[in-house]
Amino acid sequence: MPWILRGLSNGVITSKYPKKMDSYGDSHHSSVKVQTEYLASRDTDLEGLCPTGAIRVELGRPRIDLGQCILCGRCVDRAPEIFSFSTDFETARLSRDLLVVPPSAESTGELANLKSALADRVRRFGNSVALRHIDCGSDGSEEWEIAALTNPVYDVQRLGITFTASPRHADILLVTGAGAKGMSDSLKETYHQMAEPKVVVAVGTDAISGGTHSNSAAVVAGGIEGVLPVDVFVPGSPPSPFGILYGILLAMGIALDGGAST
Amino acid sequence: MTDLPLNIQSTSVSTISFACLTEARIAAGDRFAALLALPLGEQIRLLSVTSCFGGFNVIECDLETAEPTYPSFDAATPMANWYARRIFDLYGLAPSDAATLDPLIARRPCQGLHQSPEKTGLTPKFAESSRPSVIGEGVFKIPLGPVRSGVFESIEFVVETPGEEILHVEPRPFYKHRGVDAAFFGKSAEDGALIAERVEGIAGVAHAIAYCQAVEKLADVEIHMQAELVRVVHAELERIANHLESVIRHCEASAQAVAYARLSLHKESVMRLRSNICGHRFSRGVIAPGGVTTPLLLPPAEVAKKVAEIEKSIDRDMTLLMRTPSFLDRLRGTGVVTPLQARLFGALGPLGRGSGLTEDGRISHTYGAYKHLGFLPTADAQDGDAMSRQMIRIDEIANSFHLLRQALDDLNNMEHPSQNWKVELEVKDGMSLGWAEAPQGEVLYAVAIEKGRIKSLAQRSASFHNLALFSTAFPKDITTDFAFIEASFGISVAGASS
Ligand code: SF4
């Protein structure tokens, strides 16, 4: 009996997101922004600044591949006139190219096609989806953030999102980890067991590009895309629960702009 | 650093005396902590690390890669083979008389190797498993995993059971091996900290501290007290989050829905506080060689206020949980690790402390600001069951709050709270050992630096060490207890399989 009373004692704590923006979600670092007017001189080694090789300078214009960025903050610290943290957690995108900021004209042009193609596929999901998670070499933190989605604050059940143990009942596969070779067979098997239509979400920078393990012989080159086709990319090391939730909403075809603004 | 009360006593010896000197240390009462391998070009350096009063004894020997074998010391500790298997998985280096070399952290043919067994001329002696199966009527082997039902890390447990009782469990963490040690090779000292944070992501602060302390020893610098205190704040919040997670997993397994929801809520508050004070929910990018990259982003007094609020709500719910019979009944007598086994295997962290061991690196091998902070007396829970481990964790949560109060108070009283976070350091060539007490127990880093870069590195998490005890915790447990035993061990698979 005492537990029942306690269950009621906190009042409303559940986030209203995505109906309403959540102020906590926007309170910590979620990605890095690049000052677009900046023209790098030839002798500043901006690329060498980044420990994961996420910064690329083309014709003096620095760009960041958020699929490789681990948000270490070094670029923000050393070159604050060019790089700054962004707290916008809606960082998930429908293609690998769209993770590069500022995005190129081609990648944004492609977006409309990607969106309609995905929307066609996921129409049958209706208002509820079942998620299956599989770890392919994470550092353990992504699992915490995914599991957090079921806590009373995020409570994703309110949005028709449930977790399932059986791949056969799953609509969306959440994949974490750098793509450990030892998990490749299990990953493929899980994917094949899922019925069509199915959507794959790569959760975290490790899953997208291997992150700090990208050069390891023990992981598949290029993250889990080296094993499976990926539909939604959620950057972050690890991404926050809100960031993951946004990725799931994209995968359901009900979100939002999917990278149109950046 | 001669003024440190702690010593690392390093002895370089020949291959022949390596095993017997290690055996002698264990016979003299040292706790066997780790056997580590550092590939150094033409040679592989083996380090046996044993813990003694106030420090570590390190015995080193260099093996030529042309003839890479060493005598085992399996007779002195059951852990020797556990470590030998790991080193064989990583570098194809095996003791001449190994008991078994079953794959442990990487499935052969070796992945992520610095050096393949083909190159060293060694081939695995056994295929998948050399363990003779338990023979009896109706005994079957059930593989649990590697893909688990639920949001869990991948690991396989091969369970041998006649139906209800568990006769043997063999953990196989190798599926998600990432070759983490090799990821450090060639990196700058600064970049090393970023990788260390990701070895065992849920204990990244402790890993980064252990790594940085190894590097700082080589640079021979003193870290500012402000920075040491900020490290404590991040490390203790990490501990609280991890211990809560362990209790949450217990609640989940015993279908305590409200307790599960309440404690998940408190854990979320802790994660939010962590992000509020540094911008990252796992405090990444904060700990760096020489100190911390950023002071607390909120005034210490304000952090202290939030900490006090969280403490109060956790305390209320924990008190009730520990009076809920349907919950406690599942933990009592479950997954017993006897004090004898704990000592024999050198169990680490809450696992060891729940079985009567007293060592806590923050006190016995003190470092950083812990030297100046007071600890509360520890719980008297040493039955070795899931219940004892749970009580230890709850007690440690209280202790972490106690440390947070002191650290935040000290930071509040500092004269220049907004400066002196980081000292510039020049990392000199050499090898050194760093350690820290993670929520899971002792973390060790052996780091070799050459020309300012990491030449070689070997890390060992408590999760890897403690996993060796997992199969000993099933003397008569039934399959339905499995989830409790797993939760009470609190092992991070990422750390164990790295
Ligand atoms: S914040 Fe991202 S882009 Fe910047 S240096 Fe770190 S990893 Fe590279």
What do you see in this structure?
The complex is a heterodimer of chains A (262) and B (498). Chain A is an alpha/beta fold and 262 residues long. The radius of gyration of chain A is 19 Å and the shape is globular. Chain A has a domain at 108-251: Rossmann fold (3-Layer(aba) Sandwich). Chain A contains 7 helices and 10 strands. Chain A has helices spanning 2-8, 74-78, 105-122, 141-148, 184-193, 205-209, 241-251, and strands spanning 31-34, 55-58, 61-65, 83-86, 100-101, 129-135, 161-163, 172-176, 199-203, 232-234. The relative contact order of chain A is 0.18. Chain B is of the alpha+beta class. Chain B has 3 domains: 8-120, NADH:ubiquinone oxidoreductase Nqo5 subunit (Beta Polymerase, domain 2, 2-Layer Sandwich), CATH 3.30.460; 140-176, no CATH class; 190-439, Cytochrome-c3 Hydrogenase, chain B (Orthogonal Bundle). In chain B, a hairpin with a 2-residue loop joins β13 (441-450) and β14. In chain B, α6 (204-219) packs antiparallel against α7 (225-253), α8 (257-278) packs antiparallel against α9 (300-321) and α14 packs parallel to α16. The longest helix of chain B is centred in the middle third of the chain and has 29 residues, at 225-253. The two termini of chain B are 31 Å apart. The interface between A and B is large, with 61 and 62 residues. Iron/sulfur cluster is lined by residues 32, 49-52, 54-55, 64, 69-75 of chain A. Iron/sulfur cluster binds at residues 32, 49-52, 54-55, 64, 69-75 of chain A.
